[in-house]
Amino acid sequence: MNGSLHLGHAFTISKVEFAAGYQRMLGKRVLFPHGLHVTGMPIKAASDKIIREMELFGENFERYDPTVEDETPKVTENGPAPPTTQVGKATKGKVAAKSTGLTYQFQIMESIGVPREEVKKFADPYHWLSYFPPICKGDNNAMGNRIDWRRSFLTTDINPYYDSFVRWQMNKLHRLGKIKFGERYTIYSPKDGQPCMDHDRSDGEGVGPQEYVAIKMEVVEWSPAAKAVVEGRVGGRTVYLVPATLRPETMYGQTNCFVGPSLKYGIFAINDNDAFLVSYRAARNMAFQGLSPSRGEIVQLLEIDGASIVGTKVKAPFGVIPEVYVLPMESVKATKGTGVVTSVPSDSPDDYATTEELRKKAEYYKVDPQWLDFTPVPVIKTTKYGDLTAVEVCKDLKIQSPKDANALADAKEIAYKEGFYGGTMIIADRKGLAVAYAEPESLVVSRSADECVVALMDQWYIDYGEPSWRAQTERLLARMDTWTVETRNLFESTLAWLNQWACARTYGLGSKMPWDPQFMVESLSDSTIYMAYYTVAHLLQGGDITGHAVGPLGVTAEQMTDEAWEYVFCNGPWPNPEPFPREKADVMKHEFNYFYPFDMRSSGKDLVQNHLTFSLYNHVAVFPENKLPLGIRTNGHLMINGQKMSKSKGNSLTLREGIEKFGADAMRLTLADAGDGVEDANFDEKTANANILRLHTLLGWCEDMLKDETKLRVGPRNYHDRVFEEEIIDHINITKHHYDSISFKDALKYGFYEFQNIRDWYREVTADVGMHVELVKYWIRASTLLMTPFAPHSAEHIWLAFLHEPQSIQLAHWPDPGRTADRTLIEAGAYMRGTLKMIRDAETTLLKKLQKGKRGKPDGPSFDPKSPKSVRVYVATRFPEWQEICVQAVREAYSEAEDRVDDVRVRTILTEKGLIKDKRVMPFVQAFKAQKRMQDFGSKAAFNRSLSFSESQVLAEFMPYLKRSLNLVNAEVFLVDEALQRDGPGFTPSIIETSEPGSPAFEYRNV
User: Helix or strand or coil: residue 51?
Assistant: First the structure.
């Protein structure tokens, strides 16, 4: 809670909001709470930036000069810039770097609406906790979200009740052996002096430590250039080049060592006796892994160019060749490993290609050929490539140079897979010198703008991944609803790799670790079961998100002991002596048992890899079996107009700005239309603007219809009335299905867009006699209820102002028709619309042919669209005989058990029937198999090709509208057999014979 909610937050919130609105219409009591998470570094880091900027620019930043460039050290190819002596210089934070393009925190505050003279108040981290929560609440209310604000709370120890809840959780995990203490690698911020967990990062979320084996290659003899730089400056220490490898088993085959000739290296003191030659970035990591004189101390004895090191002779621990030379390699990066690379040409295609290149161009690369006086040393033997895998793979792929990057990448994958899955070690174990080394898998930057390292440290961690605990969590996932396969796959893959997680920190806001109060519980660990706290928050807190006021039960935070929480949530024994009357605890227990477990948790898909999986683990450990989560759904990020949201690009919208720009309901409709899967969704502003007009038109139409009912028809219902009623019922049922499935985009399609389309058709088709008053009222009532979850403000207005209902629509129930729709009338309605479209398309085709005829083609149709016109419709009562034979062939070749058609069997049958050479046959068979009817309704419906209604009767009801809409003098319907017997103009056999049941043929003529 360190800023205003943006449209991406609104998108995730909307999924719960729509579900809550719908479920309430089913008569359920729905709990939709909204907490305010303020734990961790973001707020503290931002307030510390403001303090530094005030020192630099003055209390109101009056000394800030926008023309002065930011001189903050940047990460370069050689790793992070060494520390500078400049004090108080602010750096870009997450919001600045990724969204705003702004440099300073005070500028970011101004960009979100905080007056400059007010910014100084945010130097106090607790001011953030009083400033932004009311904005969050106001924005949610403006959106119309159905949130129970009585249950809201702030995390951290500012809220003593929630703090007590977190202490109980941590104590229970500790007592169960889920929280342990030990030395382990973790991502660490030297600037903040503590582990940097995912929520504390501006870059690198999800990145973990990468562990290597670092080989100590002792310098035997410096190259002349290096000797001139090094001699007398290392204090008598032994200097080691220290390459890091993920494959120590191949070190037996070392033939040389590589450095980047254009990189900068340093020699760093490890202790009084040893020094390492590595990149500054590697030395910075090592300083927090016990590889420096004191923890965090980087003692750089000197800096040296990579080119100067080339030609140095070093020992090769483990190697068959005891001493090797340092050679140049252009592709070495200081941002990966230590900047020093050991070389095993028999196993590594890159190493082989580089050493061959150096041999061919020794003079160009300024290397002595004697340094390359070796042959690749076999280490691993594979079945396919023998004992020189890299050499053979490079020959196979015709790799000629280390610049063949793509081919080398392929070669590396081939060689390493062959060695890993089918390789045999051919060299016995050898002794040598190595140390453990680790670094972040990729760049990690904390919210305090510090490039993080990997530190080896004693710390409290949660033992995620422990086999029995993981198995329990996997069983929970198996029975839990995730709504999409992609979400389930994300959980399964996370459970496969997730392991120990540091759960304590010393910097930021949070709750103290109960048994070790020098630490705070980190931000992803104090919010894993907070959903349970919602159920009792309103009973404990006195209407205050900070919990400073005692709630209606009169229970203080101090009275909420671990035993009391255990009694309420886990049916533990009631403590003796009791901290407060048991009857009060029973009230909380009743509330918890009524609402828990939660039915749906909605979140961004990026939280599956930590927070959401942590939540599953913690629920399994803390709660009884019957209180475990029932469902978690996730969504992708929200784009605007097909682009990632970015303030610097001008396409970022806060929740409040979205409401002000489009109105709450139009914005909500567009959020529903944006998508439901885990792929990134899109908020299209054109759709939002169209929804403004659509809502305005809908409100106006409803008002007009209900204001003067005398304009509407009464009395018996005609054929189109009956079709319309069935379509209303059908769309209600379809919309309900999609609401039940949490498929809001489809619910919107059928319950809003398509629902208006069927009304528009009814209005047009009954224009000559008028719409029936009862059906118009039915449609308005149903439409209003169907859109209530999406557009509550507009629905409420129609409900109260136009329909004059006595109570809010929020108390209304779903318009359940109590039956399924009559499929005969539904199909007849679809037939009428399809027929109109086909006739219009036929006219368009004729016009195109006519235009071609006027350009000089004598065979143009003798039809003038500007003259009075008529149409004949030809209705077939049966399919052509050859088609019936084809359908029967498919039927005989269809296996219901396998749900597939044996194409070979179809061809055999058609050959026997003498139809295989008919050019119409196979295209028809393929089209029949692929037709929508077979896919949607199954094989039985597809093979039964009879219509559920009489085409002739439907067309007879349809003709008045057809004539009006197409401006026809006349429209006639003929059966195919009858039409073929007619002579005279307009009865064209080739057209008549194209008619099929459900797909009539048309013929225009002038009259």
Answer: helix
